[in-house]
Design brief:
Structural class: alpha+beta
Number of helices: 2
Shape: elongated
Number of strands: 8
Amino acid sequence: MDKLMLKIVTPDRLFFDDEIDMLIAKSNEGDFAIMKNHIPMIAALDIRYLRIKKNGEFRYAAIAGGYLTFKDNQITIISDAVEWREEIDKNRALEAQKRAEARIKKAKNEFEMDRAELDLKRAINRLKILD
């Protein structure tokens, strides 16, 4: 395949399926970029944002973690949630941050604490991408 293709799938929708120039993402081991003819790989993605370069310009999308595979110039990402920067409602993200912070303070066990911390990390990630 001569083109670098990216497909991003969530439970709700096919988020993206098109040719790109480059993808920059963050795995549990750090930031990485994929361009045409990159070596095959699998990565667990961190809660962060994706930088998708197409036609020389970057678009940003908040991602709630997930998994990435790359082989034969085909990148596939599977995630619970992905949003374009322009789809994020700042007020909604701020409210989610406040709720998560309150749940952290009220957590009665490790499970509740872990869930609240993940929700807080997602809310902060959504807010950071707006800056």
